[in-house]
Each structure stands twice: as structure tokens, then as C-alpha cells.
Amino acid sequence: MSPSLHSDVFEALGRRIAAGDLPIGGTLTLEWIQTEFGVSRSIARECVKSLESMGLVESRRRAGILIRPASEWDALSPTLIRWQLDADPRGPKLGALNEMRAAIEPVAAAAAARRATESERTRILELAARLRAEGAKDDLTDFLATDIKLHSAILAASHNDTFYALRELVAEVLAGRTRLGLYPAHPEPIALDLHDEVARAIATGSSEAAEDAMRALVAEVREALLEKGLRGFLTTD
Question: CA 116 to CA 127: how far, in whole Å?
């Protein structure tokens, strides 16, 4: 089986399901997948298994491959999140993810202030300084990469394995906002200031200040997304 061919078909099917082009409650067959994508039965079967692992479909004997309700999908899958954001950039998914960040990241920052090692505190300060320097450039590529590293470092420094397990999800949210044109051409000064505040609070072991600064940072993102016309959870107080 060609890994590339499997990946291409899996990606195409997943995106169609996430976008609603293949509707919830509908059914597929291996034969349809083979014909639609010109692949072998074994590749079609492996693609279905991959989609099943994400909760998108369910194979039923004599009934075909059922597309499951969205409530049963793996909502924390970074791959599925990317598909959903690409399908509806201003839809409710990004708002829901920002609500999740508001619930998790401030607490993780507070935990990092209490538990981080000296080397972790130093790295977080270095990443915040690098983020500010890269924010002055015209290209957001390096800025985004550093932003992802900084948030991942904070989750790691919390020494809470459940928080750290969410790092790829947070990275996909940050990347998606930039990829979909929902990030300003130049980072807002307040956002850079808040990243600095979070880093300094963690470095000095001030858990309350770290939590407050991270909460303010996520709230700033919320307001920026609302200004971009985001729909869904963000508009509900």
C-alpha cells in the first residue's frame, strides 16, 4: 500500500466529511471510494479505518459505512480541527477552541510558575523575547513558529501531562488563525506585552500573575476574532 496514496484519500474524505459535502447520516461503500479515487480495495479499507479512529465513520455489516454525528467525532484531533477550520474559518469551531484555551492555558501558566525548573523559566523568557523581536518583521512565519514553541513550553513547564498532551491542539489553533487570515499583519502591541507578562510571571514564580496575564492574553484573542466576524461560541457571554 502506498502511504502517500492512503494519506491523500484519507485527507480528501476527511475534508469532505468535515465540510458537510458528505453529509452526516449518509453512507459510503468501499466500492464508491475505490471508484471515486481510483484506488485499490485495501487502500479504501485502510482509509476507512483511519476515519473510524477519529470517530467520523462507522462500518456496519450490510449497511455500509455510516457518517457519524459530529458530536461523536474526536473533537481534540489536530487533524480534524484543521479540516474544520479550513472548511468554515469564521464558524463556531475556532470560538469553541478559544473557550477551551481560556479554561486550560491560564491554569497551566499558573502551574508553570509554581513547578517550572530554572532551565524552563529561562527558555520561556528567551522565547518571549524572541517573539517580540520577530513581531517587528513583515513575515509572520517565524513569529508563528516561536509563538507555538512558547505556548508549548508553558504547557510542558506546568508538569501536568494532561495539559502537555494538548500542545498539538493549541499549535493547530495558533497556526489555523494565521493560515486563515485571522491574524493581523503585525502583532498587536498588547499581545506582545501580555506574552512578556506571562513569561516574567512564570520566571519569578508568581502563579497568580501568570494566570491573570494568560487569561488576559486569551481574552485579547477573543476580541480580535470577534472583530474579524467570527461566529458561534465567542458571541455568547
Answer: 15
